[in-house]
Amino acid sequence: MNDLPSSQPDWPHIISELRSSVTITDATDPKQPLIFVNDYFVQLTGYSKEEVIGRNCRFLQGADTRSETAREIRHALSKCMPVRTEILNYRRDGSTFWNELNIDPIFDKEGRCVLFVGLQYDVTDRKLLEEEATHAARSAHGQSRALMEFMGKLNHELRNNMNGMLGLIDIVLMDETLPEDVREYLELAKGSGDTLLNIANDVLDLAGATDGRMKLERIEFNPKHVLDSIVKTHRLRAEEKGLPLILNVEGIHHQRLYGDPHRLRQVLDNLIGNALKFTTTGSITLTAEESKRAESSPFIYMRFTVRDTGIGIPEEHMDKLFKAFSQTEASHARVYGGSGLGLKICEELVTLMGGSISVDSRKGEGSSFHIDIPFSKENQAQLPL
Ligand SMILES: Cc1cc2nc3c(=O)[nH]c(=O)nc-3n(C[C@H](O)[C@H](O)[C@H](O)COP(=O)(O)O)c2cc1C
């Protein structure tokens, strides 16, 4: 401050020299005439000072200026309030620019609003970039919606036709006089059809879970009963492979919870199915436990762990695990089948339920998949989604 000249600064000169546009109107006149514009305003708009002094600034507006914006300004000025807005303005030569307009009321010592000071910034470049970004986002959204709709229809067609085909194969297979080799071919065809049907179901689920179409249920269920029935459906396959399938539910104390047991089943079915697929010796265990939470909390987190003693996942493949269409090694897809969407769907479903999924694994020693999901203890309680 010590370096300032001792004489009174020449404010009008300083404002005239500013590299920003400054305008001042007489607030006591209802017509709001301009009484001052600086040089930069002349540069920005192409109008000379003589042409604009005494006029209301609305001459900068034109056919494409939003009338609501002008209305908002009028409303604020009538209440002597400051205005911050963006408005499309026209230069003297008819070209347009986006004007970021800041208007402030100036009060005298008695508190009367005597002047308005307006600052104008040309923000056309920024505005165009914003418009481009919005346009790009809209068209990307539209495209992905269209793609999802298309996939939905495609899946519907695929499933209908495949179900028809599989039904026909079943009818032919009922013929006990079929030659053995024909029966074998038909069973192979049926197996391929089943795989295709599963892939179609997976794709549809994933599309629904990722674009927000899938809705969760909230119904009462007994967690032990649900887990019992899940394990039962896999027991036969485990026995065929000579693998014990163990269910450990000692950590569950609640008999009644609220949430979506069908989606929970879908996730656990998937994880147990994978465990069975990739394990040849040892065992598979499904453990469920309640995390310790304050008694007063309306929900509890349940941790489900599916542990196997299978081939395990090499460390370098861990990050690919939850990506769509990724089986950690391409050769796995051929040997073990599947769409490569299973874990991605699990992750999407668990996230939709407000939970998380994680994995510990070592190549050759097996894998443990953990899922932590909150469930309500009361019917109305809001889940921490
Ligand atoms: C100090 C001041 C500066 C203004 N600057 C601009 C401007 O640069 N561009 C513009 O479109 N409107 C500007 N306006 C707003 C218009 O003058 C007018 O108040 C607005 O269009 C609303 O009134 P109306 O609906 O009667 O036109 C300014 C107003 C004031 C008080």
Tell me the span between the first and last alpha carbons: 55 Å
Average pLDDT metric: 86
> What can be said about the biggest beta sheet?
5 strands, antiparallel
Q: Determine the CATH superfamily of the largest domain.
A: Histidine kinase-like ATPase, C-terminal domain
Q: Structural class of the secondary structure composition?
A: alpha+beta
Radius of gyration: 35 Å
Overall helicity: 40-55%
**Oligomeric status:** single chain
H/E element order:
HEEHHHEEEHHEHEEHEEHHEE
Per the CATH scheme, the topology name of the largest domain is Heat Shock Protein 90
Strand content: 15-25%
Q: Compounds present?
A: flavin mononucleotide
Summed up, the domain count is: 3
How many strand elements? Answer: 12
- Looking across the biggest beta sheet, what order are the strands in? 2-1-5-4-3
Low-confidence parts: none
CATH architecture of the largest domain: 2-Layer Sandwich
Describe what this molecule looks like in 3D.
With 385 residues, the protein is α+β, with helices and mostly antiparallel strands. It folds into 3 domains: 11-122, PAS domain (Beta-Lactamase); 129-210, Methane Monooxygenase Hydroxylase, Chain G, domain 1; 219-376, Heat Shock Protein 90. The chain has 10 helices and 12 strands. It has helices at 11-17, 39-45, 49-52, 67-78, 124-173, 180-210, 223-240, 261-277, 330-336, 342-352; strands at residues 21-26, 34-37, 83-90, 96-107, 113-122, 219-221, 245-251, 257-259, 284-290, 299-308, 356-362, 366-376. The strands form 3 sheets. It has a 5-stranded antiparallel sheet, sandwiched between helices. Strands 7-9-10-12-11 form a 5-stranded mixed sheet, with helices on one face. Strands 6-8 form a two-stranded antiparallel sheet. Strand 1 and strand 2 (34-37) form a beta hairpin. Helix 5 (124-173) packs antiparallel against helix 6 (180-210) and helix 7 runs parallel beside helix 8 (261-277). The radius of gyration is 35 Å and the shape is elongated. The two termini are 55 Å apart. The protein binds flavin mononucleotide. Flavin mononucleotide (FMN) binds next to strand 1, helix 4, strand 3, strand 4 and strand 5. Flavin mononucleotide is lined by residues 23, 25, 32, 56-58, 60-61, 70, 73-74, 77, 87, 89, 99, 101, 103, 116-118, 120.
